[in-house]
Amino acid sequence: MPNIDRTIPWAFFDGAANQTGCGGGFVLHINEHHRYLAKMGLGIGSNNYAQLSAIRNLLQFALTHHITDINIYGDSMLVVNWINNATECHSYTLSNILQDALTLKAAFNHFTCVHIYKEHNCAVDQLSKAASLLPRGEWLMVEHNDEEEHRFYHRPYIDQRDQRDISPEN
Length: 170
Prior knowledge:
This protein has one domain: 2-Layer Sandwich (Nucleotidyltransferase, domain 5), CATH 3.30.420.10. By secondary structure, the protein is of the alpha/beta class. The chain contains four helices and seven strands, in the order βββαβααβαββ. The chain has helices at residues 47-64, 77-83, 92-105, 122-131; strands at 10-18, 21-31, 34-43, 69-74, 110-115, 139-145, 148-154.
């Protein structure tokens, strides 16, 4: 398990793609007692599309909840490298989503994104696989705060650019 600084919010993300669709998930820990679990249906796309969409949606969610410091963990070395500007994204379709994520990343005061092995990302892996069965645009969000649990379900608008020219090769 990675060494996690629990003095600031931390999160895990993942994406999954199969023949029926793709989905993303994240778990955002505000602190030891307060966390959000999210799964989102992303339509049709590649695993890289699902991974990148999951981290972009995580960043957007964190910022809307006034989180400005965050440590993020994911099992996609490629997406972690893209977010950290360690490698370039050469996919036209994915570069739009990456640019959105990098713009969101710039709004944080403290930001890290670290690669972890798949066995340390099991909970979010299960969320993203379950999310791949959701229709495009549907989200399920669960908020845990101490002993309380709140479930939210919504179907927000998804930017049409995300679905343009997406094929399993991207």
